[in-house]
């Protein structure tokens, strides 16, 4: 929306080491982001500061060093590992004579490359437009307000005002379409709730191995690669669990530290799968030295989208890269699973994960023994239709003795429907 240099594939990376944790970023993560975007890293400039500079974000001396490095290495773009203000971007571009991008713009570019579905493309466009709207100020200073006179009269707007108006209109249009998508998703969730089908949502830091685990559990064949944000569009598949039956497994976009708020807002419809889930599988790359910080960042985003109250089962992934670590289940004092150690890539520990999932979702199940008289054949038909019978046999008196397992909500609803005859036939032990 304003005249800027063209962006190329040869990039200079700029990383500033701040003393406070709020502005700290990881240089290795920036290099992975740049690689995921398909950009060639030709040089790195590092600096240390107590706080960002107003004009260049870095000091004037370091800004001159960046400009010299760009000229020496014939770079096309400078990528900062931090969020820049519009004025800082313009000042740096004027100094370096090339395109300057910040961390948010880089992540948005990766998302734009990864989006495949119509919904995903709309969400990315919405985030990009919101980000761009803050960068329109003084973007068209070379165009003055339109003059009056014959043949020259116009709407009286500057080009900047026209762009703002068009931008607001496009944002509203995308928001309305995304609201329709959100209503469709809500209908799907309501139907699953009515059918009492539990939903398990995969969450975790980007590149933790969520899609690989998803493929291992479902044979879905979704795109999985050793790069950041390989998955963007959500995928849902059915899985079968012993003693639970069908469950829905959802693969979602990965989180990252300082995830742009525009992205969180734009992906509200997608992230709602996480909010409404019965259980979250928090996938953690335990081979990453910074896994503790990554876990904290994911929990921070979950809190931001109001999903921090959903029960979690931590998946300690990539144990094949660790020495002397075997697949296992860690339990709390009450014996409930809290962590599963596995390797999604090698398929090690998948059986333990299914066992843990069964135990976590089975807590809503009830197990009862019934003694049903031969005269009440309707109950027998109903229980067979629900496919909830574990064992059955007939007593010497001709009564039907049966063991059933079902969701507690199903039991109470069925008991009410049958005038509480299920409770009447319960076998007292």
Automatic annotation (TrEMBL):
Indicate whether Signal appears among the record's keywords: no
Q: What Pfam families does its record include?
A: GTP-bdg_M (PF16360), GTP-bdg_N (PF13167), MMR_HSR1 (PF01926)
- Molecular functions (GO terms): hydrolase activity
Identify the residues that the record assigns to the Hflx-type G domain, covering every copy.
Answer: 198-365
PROSITE patterns given in the database record: G_HFLX
Report the subcellular localization: Cytoplasm
Going by the entry's taxonomy, the superkingdom of the source organism is recorded as Bacteria
Which segments does the entry list as coiled coil?
164-191
Q: What keywords is this UniProt entry annotated with?
A: Coiled coil, Cytoplasm, GTP-binding, Hydrolase, Magnesium, Metal-binding, Nucleotide-binding
Query: Where is this chain primarily localised?
Result: cytoplasm
Describe the function of this protein.
Answer: GTPase that associates with the 50S ribosomal subunit and may have a role during protein synthesis or ribosome biogenesis.
NCBIfam families recorded for this chain?
A: GTP_HflX, PRK11058.1
Subunit composition and interactions: Monomer. Associates with the 50S ribosomal subunit.
PANTHER family in UniProt: GTP-BINDING PROTEIN 6-RELATED, GTP-BINDING PROTEIN HFLX
Similarity remark:
Belongs to the TRAFAC class OBG-HflX-like GTPase superfamily. HflX GTPase family.
Question: What is this protein identified as?
Answer: GTPase HflX
């Amino acid at each position: 929306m304003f005249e800027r240099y063209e962006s190329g594939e040869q990039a200079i990376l700029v990383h500033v080491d701040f003393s406070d944790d709020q502005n700290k970023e990881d240089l290795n993560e920036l290099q992975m982001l740049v690689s995921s975007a398909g950009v060639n890293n030709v040089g790195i400039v590092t600096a240390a500061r107590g706080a960002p500079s107003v004009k260049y974000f870095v000091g004037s001396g370091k800004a001159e060093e960046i400009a010299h490095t760009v000229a020496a290495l014939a770079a096309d773009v400078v990528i900062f590992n931090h969020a820049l203000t519009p004025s800082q971007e313009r000042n740096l571009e004027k100094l370096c004579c090339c395109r300057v991008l910040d961390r948010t713009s880089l992540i948005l570019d990766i998302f734009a490359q990864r989006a495949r579905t119509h919904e995903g493309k709309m969400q990315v466009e919405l985030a990009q437009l919101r980000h761009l709207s803050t960068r329109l100020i003084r973007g068209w200073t070379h165009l003055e307000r339109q003059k009056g006179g014959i043949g020259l009269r116009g709407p009286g707007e500057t080009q900047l005002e026209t762009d703002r108006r068009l931008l607001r209109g496009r944002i509203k249009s995308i928001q309305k379409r995304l609201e329709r998508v959100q209503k469709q998703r809500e209908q799907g969730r309501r139907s699953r709730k009515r059918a009492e089908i539990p939903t398990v949502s995969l969450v975790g830091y980007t590149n933790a191995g969520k899609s690989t685990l998803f493929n291992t559990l479902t044979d879905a064949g979704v795109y999985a690669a050793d790069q950041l944000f390989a998955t963007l569009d959500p995928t849902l598949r059915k899985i079968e669990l012993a003693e639970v039956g069908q469950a829905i497994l959802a693969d979602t976009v990965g989180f990252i530290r300082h995830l742009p708020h525009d992205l969180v807002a734009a992906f509200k419809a997608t992230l709602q799968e996480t909010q409404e889930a019965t259980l979250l599988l928090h996938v953690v790359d335990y081979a990453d030295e910074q896994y503790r910080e990554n876990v904290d960042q994911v929990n921070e985003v979950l809190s931001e989208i109001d999903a921090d109250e959903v029960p979690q089962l931590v998946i300690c992934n990539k144990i094949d890269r660790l020495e002397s670590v075997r697949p296992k289940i860690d339990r709390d004092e009450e014996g409930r699973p809290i962590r599963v150690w596995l390797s999604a890539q090698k398929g090690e520990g998948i059986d333990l994960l299914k066992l843990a999932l069964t135990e976590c979702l089975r807590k809503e199940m009830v197990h009862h023994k019934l003694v049903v008289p031969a005269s009440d054949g309707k109950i027998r038909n109903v229980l067979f239709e629900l496919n909830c019978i574990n064992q059955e046999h007939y007593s010497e008196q001709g009564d039907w003795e049966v063991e059933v397992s079902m969701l507690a909500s199903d039991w109470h609803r069925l008991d009410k429907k049958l005038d509480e005859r299920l409770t009447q036939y319960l076998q007292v032990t």
